[in-house]
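Protein data:
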Amino acid sequence: MSIRRKTSFYAIRTTMGREIDVALVIESRIMDLVKQNRDPGVKAVFVPPGVRGYVFLETSRLASIYRLISELKYVKSGQPIKVSLDEVGRLVKPKPVIEMIKEGDIVEIVRGPFRGMKAQVISIDRNKNMVVLSILEAAFNVPITVPGDYVKPSRKSGV
């Protein structure tokens, strides 16, 4: 009969741009413990996209984190920060593309018959998840309406 402990999420502060390096070293240390038939106590190590300077761990024992990050080069602080499950959910859940663009932005069409073309956003209907575009490579200006997930931001307006 095994005892199940409640896991918690912790953030480790790292040097910006070195999050993946820290996560890989922690993973390597976990694998070494597993090879020695020792319980690392860590269920997950992840680096959410768009979050700079932090590596997140899910563990049932805080002492495991201290053991894994000891003497790690790019760890800024030896004190892990406890993070709620709701906060982790917000960090991991991808933001819809339609939330990241605004009128006047240049986007690339990634699906449909106009795939690969660049276009400028004329208007956005966030309720219907639709975007009205003007294709930049067209000989004449014809607005087209495509779903919001058919586009990806290329550059902001005024840039």
